[in-house]
């Protein structure tokens, strides 16, 4: 007898016997804030065949167990997990709830069940500039690269930090995007790799934050993903499901 597969949109905190089949859209490990050897957590964004996304967290004592079992871009059957409210300043999804892996959570890779929905839910640059969207949710944006700053240094808390800014253009609107930390090297490497004139840039899971007195988007460590000239089939046609 086949086990019922639940829709991600139905997941709530009424039980922990859910059974979902989802693609790992994003996966990152958050380091310890105290400098310890154990990571703070592992974070994931999961999406089902209908395009509904939900955030999932693995606490530090279980990262060793689940990290080897999960790979970004692959599809898994995930069952028996905790469910809590989706709270926080930088939420990756609009789902009311989030998943918390525990010791009894089961993960099984599904090789013959492709999930082809686009993982992107784009917000227009004009909405960011003029409509004051909720900054507690991370956003996906797309635009044409029209400028970049090169590497810049600035002082924060007595330490020299690095950043790079790029300008994106869409439907008559220009938006400055600021990136920090490891993202600086990633962007500079892309810009140095070849002619990026009028390149299409996708920034996935970016936070909205004022920069130089104007609305802008910035990276969130680990969560944000930047793509230059991505595969068109995977990008266009993106819709917001839930």
UniProtKB/TrEMBL annotation:
PANTHER family associated with the record: OS03G0429900 PROTEIN (PTHR47165)
Pfam families reported in the protein's UniProt record: DUF223
Source organism phylogeny: Eukaryota, Viridiplantae, Streptophyta, Embryophyta, Tracheophyta
Protein name: Replication protein A 70 kDa DNA-binding subunit B/D first OB fold domain-containing protein
UniProt domain Replication protein A 70 kDa DNA-binding subunit B/D first OB fold: residue ranges: 6-109
